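Just curious. Invent one:
>
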Amino acid sequence: MMEKITQSEQIKKHLESGGTITALSALQIFGCMRLAARISELRKKDHLPIASRTVTNGDKRFSEYYLQHNLKTV
């Protein structure tokens, strides 16, 4: 039986590969409805230096998360 990969692990791999993620893309790609909670878990548990920026698209504003590789501590 295969082990199921958690949403947090999937998001971590996505960010580590250089990707960015928004709430909408997290829902579409991973079925994740609580991206902010998963980001918080990764920051606390894995000590990942995840940063965010606000993106504006017309009258819509949303957060986009990305990994700051140069700040990652071991």
About this structure: The helical segments are 7-16, 23-30, 35-45. The mean pLDDT is 91. Residues 35-45 form the longest helix (11 residues).
